[in-house]
Amino acid sequence: MFSDFFKGLKSLFNGHKTVMKQAFQKRVTLEYPEKKRDVSDNFRGRIEIVKDENDKLLCIGCGLCKKVCPCNGVINIEKQTEENGKLHIRYERDEAQCIYCGNCVENCPQKALKFTKEYEFATDVKSELRKIV
Amino acid sequence: MLAAKTKDWFGMTKELLKINIGLQHPSTHGVLRLITELDGETVKSVEPVIGYLHRGMEKLAESRTYLQYLPMVDRVDYLSGFFCQEAFCSAVEKLSDIEVPERAKYIRCLLMELNRITSHLLWLGTYLMDLGASSPIFYAFREREMILRIFENLTGQRMMYNFHVFGGVKRDLSAEILDEIEKFLEIFPEKIKEYESILTDNPIFLSRTKGLGILTKNVALNYSITGANLRASGLNTDFRKQKPYLVYDKLDFEVSTETAGDCYARYLVRIAEMKQSQRIAAQCVDYLKNNSGEFKNSSVNPLAIKPQGEASSFVEAPRGLMICTVTADGSEKPYRVKWRTGSFYSVQILPELLKDRNFADIMAIFGSLDVILSEVDR
Questions:
Q1: Quick check: pTM over 0.80?
Q2: B19 is in which domain, residue-wise?
Q3: Can you tell me the ipTM of this complex?
C-alpha cells in the first residue's frame, strides 16, 4: 500500500516536472489570425494561371491539365483563333472541386499554371471559387 | 431503446438497455457507430456499424487513369498517406516492370518511417485523451507538428502528400531538409523519454490499461489482426522483416513484441516502434547524405502507363498490414483496385473484446486498437 502511495507521488512529481519544463520554454503555438506562419516555396496553395508581360496567357490550350485532373477541377478550355490569327483561350477552373494535388501544375508543358502561397479563400459565395480567365 | 427482458433473482424484470455510441463521438476517430446493450454498467453486446465514411475509393479507381488516381490514394488512410502511396505505387511498378532507383527507395523509406512516428504520436495523444488525460496530446502534437512542417516544406501539404510518382519520388531531399530531419531525430529520443516518464509508471494509466482488453494470440490470428495489435499479443510478425520491400533488408532494426496482449502492451509496442522508426530514419538520412543518385526513374511516362495482369503490394502500415491489389486489363485505367487495411480487422474484434467489460472501458479498449475510420470504410 505504501509502495502505491510512493509510486503515485513519484508520477505526480514527474508530471509536474514535465509541465514546468515546458512552461519556461518558447511557445510552440501562434495566435493564428493575427500572426501567420510562413509557408515554403513548395507549398500547394491557390493555383494561379500565369500571364506573360503582355498580359497574355502562357496556356496553349493543349488540355493536358484537364486530362490529368482527378476531380474535374479544370472545367473547360476553349480555344478560338481570331481573324487576325491570334489564339484566344478561355480557361475555366473550379476551386471548389480542386483537391490541390498538383497534377496539372506538374504536367503542364508550358508552365502556365503556378502554385501560390495563398491558403485562405473560404467564402460564402460559391461562384467566387469559379475562376474564368 | 429497451430490449430483451430478463428476470433477476427476486423475480423483478430486468431489461437490457440499448445505447448508441457515435456516429460522431470524439473518441471514435471518425464516424463509427457502436450499438451497445448494457446490463447496468456491464456491456452485454456490441455491434459496430461501419460505412459512414465510405467514399468509394475502390470504385473511383475504375473511372480514372493511374495518374489521376494517385492523388486520391492518400485519402485511404489520411494519417499515413505515404504508406498508401507506397502500396499503390509499388503495385503499379510491379505490374509494369518499373525500376525504382536506390536513392528513391531510401527516400520513400525515410518518409514512411517519419510518417509512422506522426501516426503513432497522434494515437498516443488521442488515446490518452480518451482515458481522460488532457495534457499528453499537446506534447504529442508538438513533435508531430515538427515532422508535419518537414513534410510541408518537402511535399507542399501536411497530410495529402501526393509525393510518390511511378518509379521514384517527385523531388529530391535537399540538404536543408535532411538537416531538419536530422535535427528532429536527434531530439526525438529525449521526447519519447518524456512521454514514458509521465505514462509508463503512472498508476492511473496502469490501472486503466493493464489487464484490460486482453487479445490472445489465437483470437488475434483468427480475426486476421495485424500490425502492432498482433505484435502486442506475442507474435513476432512484421512485413518489413518477413517480406522486405524497398530497402528494409539493408536497414538495421528490431521488431518489438509484447506478450500480454492488453491495452498496456499495445502502448508499449507502439512506443518501442517509434524508437525503431527513429533508428531506421537515422540510417536513411545517413545514406542519403553520403550517397547521390537519381531520385526517380526518368524513363517513365506516367501518362502512358498501360500495364496488364495483377499485382499486389504488401506494406507494413502503422495500423497493420496494408495490401493494394491492382488488376489491369491493358487500358489506361485500372480494371479493379482492392485495398486491404489493418483497421477494418481491428473493428471486427470489438464484440469479442468488449463483452462483459464496463461501459467506461469501451473507449479505453477501442482507442488502444488504433482504428482510423477512413481506412475501415475506404
A1: yes
A2: 2-49
A3: 0.85
